[in-house]
Amino acid sequence: MKFFRGAAATGVRRWQVALTAVALVVGFVFTVQSRTEQSIETGLQVSSGRLGEVAYRYRAEDERQTAMRAEIADLRREIADDEQRAAADQRVTASLATELGMLRAAAGLTALRGPGLAVTITDSRRALRPGEDPNLVLIHYSDVRAVVNMLWAAGAEAVAVNDERIIATTGLSCVGTTILCNTRRMAPPYRIVAIGNQDTMMAAAQARGGILDQLRAFEFPVTVTTGTDLPVPAYGGGFVYRYAKPAGTGG
Q1: DSSP per-residue letters across 91-121
Q2: Cβ neighbours for 144, distance < 8 A, ≥ 6 positions apart
Q3: Concatenated DSSP letters for 22-44?
Q4: What is the predicted pLDDT for the residue at 12?
Q5: HSE-up (13 A, CA, CB side) for residue 60
Q6: Computed over its alpha carbons, how large is the radius of gyration of the chain?
Q7: At what angle do helices 14-44 and 2-10 cross, to 10 degrees?
Q8: What pLDDT is recorded for position 124?
Q9: CB count, 10 Å around CB of 214?
Q10: Each residue of 87-123: pLDDT tens digit?
Q11: Distance of CA 132 to CAs 11, 125, 138, 217, Å?
């Protein structure tokens, strides 16, 4: 302020004073910039001639990192999408596995356990009277088949005769004094195990005039027991279809 007041006092014009002030400011700025560049040169060990190149590389590197961050974000989204699709595929696979397990059980290819009935029938111990046919005191395949059908009709979900699983293609037939079930020959006593609703099956087993009532009437020993964890084995044979074949889904 003394300088300006002195200048005013000595009659120096105002524009000369302003020009001097501007020159002082420019000189100050130039000095600060020069010292800053010197500080950068000292700190980075880079000459002032290469500062422009360093700045260019810095911007290029910054742009490259920005592009990489964007690429990483895209890859993370793709990974999240893949994980969602994989989870959906796993759910579909689990659903198909569950359905396949149910189909295998329905086809008799899986051993099962559950509540149900065990019906045991065997040949009659009644002494034959003179002239009577010995077949009158024997359990035939038709008797076993009638018991199995009675249990199916009462809601059985799985049935086995002497540990032989009954499936859709099972046939029962007589071979002499024995019974052929699937491809296995078996002799009395016949233990028929069925998994299902015990009340319904027991009602059928105790029905008057039913197959078990008829067998008892002819003095065949019949026992019926219940169980909460009865085993029914899996079917161990093969499947041979000579005439039947899948119909397919097409029209």
Answers
A1: HHHHHHHHHHHHHHHHHT-S-EEEEEEEEEE
A2: 121, 161, 172, 179, 181, 190, 192
A3: HHHHHHHHHHHHHHHHHHHHHHH
A4: 58
A5: 6
A6: 49
A7: 140
A8: 92
A9: 14
A10: 999 999 999 999 999 898 888 999 999 999 999 999 9
A11: 162, 14, 12, 17
Compute CA 134 distance to the chain's CA centroid, rounded to the nearest angstrom: 57
How far apart are alpha carbons 45 and 48 in whole angstroms?
10
Q: Which two tokens stand for residue 101?
A: 């397990």
Enter the tokens of residue 199: 């009340």
Q: Which tokens go with 28? A: 């100050």
Tokens 């994980």, residue located = 83
pLDDT at residue 251 in the model: 47
Average pLDDT over residues 167-193: 91
Amino acid letter, residue 205:
A
pLDDT in tens, 2-54: 555 555 555 556 777 777 877 887 777 777 777 777 776 676 666 666 777 77
Show Cβ contacts of residue 117 under 8 Å, excluding neighbours closer than 6 positions.
Answer: 151, 193, 194, 196, 198, 201, 202, 205, 224, 225, 226, 227, 230
